[in-house]
Task: inverse folding
């Protein structure tokens, strides 16, 4: 049981490039979400999904896209990276009222 | 909307000192409350939780009690260790359409010296 798996762990992008952060969970959780963590601001919700085919925006969705074609996977796409998207990204899935986090993806946009 | 306020950090303590990290919240209804811990270079781990008023969550010597009357969920530990050095996040999860979405405090950095 791997839990919530994120890839890549570290990534450096140039401004304007696109990339996808991958997230997979093997716990058959319906609810998945993406957060970004910035110094002094805690974690902020980017997008979330309550099941395959259903996604919705969180607190800071601009510049990010998501899709949920399967229960297991919830990728986060940056269409045109900006330096303001330099952050640590966490994927999470929920069971009951407990949320499990992946180990994080450190993204730097230069 | 929902919000969580944690005490300002960083907090620096000597080993075996008593720890309190304050957390207050604003939410509609009856949220579940959590403390998460993040060790250097790692993701967030659930430390403890409480789902209704007067519940006490506990784990690894840490405790927090859900106080609805004061809308608080302060984290305490009687004797901290160097290995407790980490960032601690208070969070809440409301029910209804926002069920499962966490609202986080800004985090409190704890450093414990030998």
Result:
């Amino acid at each position: 049981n791997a839990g919530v798996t994120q890839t890549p762990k570290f990534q450096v992008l140039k401004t304007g490039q696109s990339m996808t952060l991958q997230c997979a969970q093997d716990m058959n959780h319906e609810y998945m979400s993406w957060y970004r963590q910035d110094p002094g601001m805690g974690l902020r919700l980017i997008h979330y999904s309550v099941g395959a085919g259903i996604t919705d925006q969180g607190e800071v969705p601009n510049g990010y896209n998501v899709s949920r074609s399967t229960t297991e996977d919830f990728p986060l796409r940056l269409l045109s990276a900006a330096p303001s998207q330099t952050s640590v990204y966490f994927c999470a899935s929920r069971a009951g009222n407990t949320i499990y986090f992946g180990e994080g993806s450190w993204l730097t946009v230069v | 909307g929902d919000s969580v306020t944690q005490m300002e950090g960083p907090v620096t303590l000597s080993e075996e000192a008593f720890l309190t990290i304050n957390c207050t919240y604003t939410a509609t209804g009856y949220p579940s409350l959590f403390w998460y811990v993040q060790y250097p270079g790692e993701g967030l781990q659930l430390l403890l939780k409480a789902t209704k008023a007067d519940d006490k969550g506990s784990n690894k010597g840490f405790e927090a009690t859900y106080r609805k009357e004061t809308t608080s969920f302060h984290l305490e530990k009687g004797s901290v260790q160097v290995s407790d050095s980490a960032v601690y996040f208070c969070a809440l999860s409301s029910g209804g359409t926002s069920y499962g979405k966490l609202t986080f405090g800004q985090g409190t950095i704890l450093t414990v010296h030998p």
Observations:
- The two ends of chain B are 41 Å apart (CA to CA).
